[in-house]
Amino acid sequence: MSRSRRRAALAAAYLGTFLATLDISIVNVALPTLQTALQTDIAGLQWVVNAYAICLSAFMLSAGPLGDRYGHKLAWLAGVFLFTIGSAICGMASALGPLLAGRAVQGVAGALLIPGAMPILAHAFPEAKERAHAIGGWSAFTALALILGPLLGGLLLHGAGWQAIFLINLPLGLIALALGLWGIPERKHPEQAALDPLGQVLSVISLGALTYGLIEAGEHGFTGTVPLTALLLALVCLLLFALVETRTARPLLPLALFRQRTFAIANLASFILGFAYYSSLFFFSIFLQQIQGWSPVETGWRMMPQFLMTGCISVLFGRLSASIPVRHLMIAGYGLTAIAMSAMAVFSADTPYWIVGSLFGLLGLGAGLAVPATGLVVMGTAPAERAGMASATMNALRQTGMSVGIALLGTLLSNRAMHVLADSAASQGVANATEVARRAVTQHRMPDAPAGFLQLYTTAMESGFHLAMLCAGLACLLAMALLLTLGSAEE
């Protein structure tokens, strides 16, 4: 393989992952703008993020077998093509429904792009040292996408409108396609590929029903018929999924690996990291824009310390892990994340930015340690022949955690805020206070608000944000406690 083609393959893999990762962070800055433009409620905003995250996590486990059976190049190119089409659908959407459809297409495509980069790089760079540099650069590009997402999103919203955050993917997608068509060599292993269509269907239904039930609980309460039915369906499909996976020769999810305690705890920690850290962008966008009143551009750069710190620590992680045991770095990462998120439970509309930015940076420091350490522990405990499946499992659980975090923590935020606002509005003599509070919190609509109502709304949203951050912090504390139970012999 010529050097020029290897460089093209490298650039294509980097750009494809950049696109898929960028859309995890860039959309969050646009959420309040989307709420106004599409006249949707907070549940609609949760779905804007989760339509992508659900499809990404649910289909990620099938990406490896698809690449093995039909070719890694073909699967990756299909991912870029689908991602470009999904971005076009999102950019042309004039209502919530088409936008969610486009986001779902993006999620399926992302499931092919993100894990698909690794076998492409491994094949293009067979020499160990070159491969390490290539994968290190891939990790840096992933961090760069997360760093640039909020800032780029704010600038595009300010200069070109919300559609631009999706339409920018079109030229980038075409460039990635051209590079991939020329530079990536085809490779397939159909004899080792085993698809699990029934498991795939059950996983999609289970995750979708779980997310739907948690989001609907924000509107109807956890005892409502709709959320209870959805959650029951999710439980039934989850049990059926587990049954199918135990009886399938090559399952979608390797349940047998979870008998290894370290593997199980590390993957639970990965789920919690998605639940608390990766979902936090959704809540930070609401806090900075709807509580503190910043514009999308200002919100974007105010989020930067979190991603800059994550990127810097990720670059230095190799040196740190050479002198400090990975398990200790992992424990420190989850501990710092727990401290940062718990401390955010005292944020208010008047909290100065030096405090907000410092805690964002501390959160980024914790995640910068936790993410690569979790990956190393998971890969270190899985058999070499199951490494690909172990990596896909860890990433899928992390994305699933993000979906559940946005759904559950978002529901807790809105329920708490509605309760506080309804009580305070009623005490101020506001007529039909419960309905007024519901519209204000879920739809950000306050057309006939009396004097002082905006302050009541801000206080109520602060209360909901505090509850969400406290729950996220406690979840990370739980992960740290579980990791502390692992002895050095299991490291």
Automatic annotation (TrEMBL):
Membrane topology: Multi-pass membrane protein
Transmembrane segments: 47-67, 74-96, 108-126, 138-158, 164-185, 197-215, 221-244, 265-288, 300-317, 329-347, 353-379, 400-418, 465-486
Annotated Gene3D superfamilies: MFS general substrate transporter like domains, Multidrug resistance protein D
Subcellular localization(s) per the UniProt record: Cell membrane
GO terms, molecular function: transmembrane transporter activity
Matches recorded under SUPFAM superfamilies: MFS general substrate transporter (SSF103473)
The entry's keywords: Cell membrane, Membrane, Transmembrane, Transmembrane helix, Transport
Start and end residues of each Major facilitator superfamily (MFS) profile domain: 9-491
A Gene Ontology term for the protein's cellular component: plasma membrane
Homology family: Belongs to the major facilitator superfamily. EmrB family.
NCBIfam families: efflux_EmrB (TIGR00711)
This protein's name: MFS transporter
Organism name: Janthinobacterium lividum
